[in-house]
Amino acid sequence: MQNKLIEKKYLVTFMLITLLFALWGFANDITNPMVAAFQTVMELSAFKASWIQFAFYGGYATMAIPAALFIRRFNYKSAILLGLGLYAIGAFLFIPAASYQNFIFFCLSLYILTFGLAFLETTANPFILSLGSKETSTRRLNLAQSFNPMGSLSGMAVASLIMLPQLWSDKRNEAGEIIFHTLSEAEKAEIRLHDLAVIRDPYVMLGIVVLLIFIVIALKKMPLVSTNDEQQDSAKNTLQRLCKNVVYREGVVAQMFYVAAQIMVWTFIIHYADNLGIDKATAQNYNIVAMSMFLCSRFISTFLMKYVNSRLLLTIFGMGAMVCTLGTICIVGIVGLYCLVGISAFMSLMFPTIYGIALENVESRDTSLGAAFLVMAIVGGAVMPPLQGLIIDQGIVAAHPAVNVSFVLPFICFLIITVYGIRAYGRQKV
Asked: Cα separation of 427 and 305, whole Å?
C-alpha cells in the first residue's frame, strides 16, 4: 500500500504551515529589488547597497540555532508564534527607518525581521517533514515549498507594479540615464523623502498581515507531532553525530552555496538589465518571469520525483543551471539576460531537495538541530552578494561588462551543488 503524501488528519495543519512558506517568500522577493532602489536613492555603491542582503540573510545565521534550541525546549507552535511576532516587529521598524532616512536603520529592521523568518523556516521545514511517512517526506516538502514562489511572485508584483514605478529617483533622460545624481541637494532631499515612504508602506502592510496570521495560528489547535524531546541528547552529542553524517554535512555546504546563488541571480537581474539600458520597473518584470518559471518548474520537479531519484534530478538540474549561467556570463545583450532568467527553472527543486536529502538519514532526536544548521546555511545569501557587488562596481573586467563576469560566483555555486548531487546519488546506490 502506497503511503499518502498528506494524511487527512494533518491536512489543515499542512495548509497553515504551507502559508508560512509563502509568507517568507514574499519578504525575500520584495526585498531583492530594494538593493537597486537603495543604491540610487541613498547614492550607494553596489557593494554597500548589498548590505541589505547581508542584513537580511545575516538574521538567519544569527537566529537559526537559538530557534532550534527553542523548539527543543518548547514546541513547533510556540516557535511559529515567536517567529511571526519578530517578523511583524521588523516590518513595523520601517516606519522610524524611513523617518530618519537612515540606511543602517533599514538594514537593522530587516535584520530583526529575519530573526522571525529564521524561527519560521527552522520550524516549518521539519514540521512538514514530520506530517506523514518518511518515504514521502521529500515530496511533501517540495509540495509545501511550491507555495514559497507564490509568495515570492506576490512580493515581486508589489515591487514591480507598486513600488518601483513610484520611485522618483529612477527617472531617466532620453538617453536612458538616471538623472537623480545631477539634481541639487534640495531636490534630492525631496525625492529621498518620497521614495523612502514608497519603500516603507508595503512593509507596514506586511506587518499587519503577519499579525492577523499570528492570531489565526494562536487560536488553531495544532496536532501534537512529536519533536522527540524525550529522546533528545545534549546539543554536543547531537552535533557530533551530525558531523559524522557525510550526506548531511555536505548538504549544509551545498545549501549555503545554493542560497548564495539564488540571491545573487534574483538580486542582480536588475543590475544586469540596467547595464542594457532597461529601467528598474521593467527589469523587475524579468524577475517576475524568472519566478514564474521557478514556480512551474517546482511543481514539475515534484511530479518527476515520483519516477526519478531526487539525487539524480538534483544533479541534472545543477548541470542545467551551470549551462544557463555560462550563457549569462559569455553573451552580452538580451540573450544573456534570457539565460539569466532561465537559471530559475533549474533552481526550483534545489533548496527543498538538498534539505530533504540532508535530513533523510538523520536520527529523529537530532532533527531540530539538524534543520537549524540547514537554515543557518542561508548565511550564504549574506556573504556572496556583497562579493558580487564588488565585482559589479569595477564596471569592466577584462574588456567584458563586470556585471556579466560577476556571475562566475553563481556558476561556482551550481558546480558545488551538482557535485553534491553526484556524491549523494553514488552513496545511495552503494
From this structure: 18
> In whole angstroms, how far apart are CA 369 and each of 113, 245, 380, 381?
21, 14, 19, 20
Fill in the DSSP letter of residue 401. Answer: E
Render pLDDT for 52-90 as a digit per residue (tens, 0 to 9): 888 888 888 788 888 878 887 888 888 899 999 999 999
CATH architecture of 8-224+234-429: Up-down Bundle (1.20)
Going by C-alpha positions, the residue among 365, 368, 260, 274 that lies closest to residue 321 is 260
Buried b (16+ CB within 10 A) or exposed e, 3-29: eebbeeebeebbebbbbbbbbbbbbbb
Pairing of strands 396-397, 400-401: antiparallel
Domain boundaries, the chain: 8-224+234-429
Instruction: Give the side-chain half-sphere CA count within 13 A for 369.
Output: 21
Using the structure block, give the residue that is written with the C-alpha cell 558546480: 415
276-326 pLDDT, tens digit each? 888 877 888 898 899 889 888 988 888 888 888 889 999 999 999 999 999
Are 140 and 128 in contact, with CB atoms under 8 Å apart? yes
| Under 8 Å between Cβ of 180 and 52 | no
Closest CA to 272 of 323, 334, 180, 325: 334
DSSP secondary structure, 357-382, as one string = HHHHTS-GGGHHHHHHHHHHGGGHHH
Rounded CA separation 6/12 (Å): 10
DSSP state of 167: -
Q: Angle CA(137)–CA(61)–CA(164) in degrees, nearest 5? A: 90
Query: What tens digit of pLDDT does each residue of 135-147 get?
Result: 777 677 777 877 8
> Any idea how long the chain is?
430
Question: How far is 54 from 380, CA to CA, in rounded Å?
Answer: 9
Q: Is the pTM of this model over 0.90?
A: no
Q: Are 107 and 90 in contact (CB under 8 A)?
A: no
Measured distance CA(41)–CA(62) in Å, rounded: 29
Distance CA(69)–CA(67), nearest Å, equals: 5
8 Å CB contact between 247 and 430: no
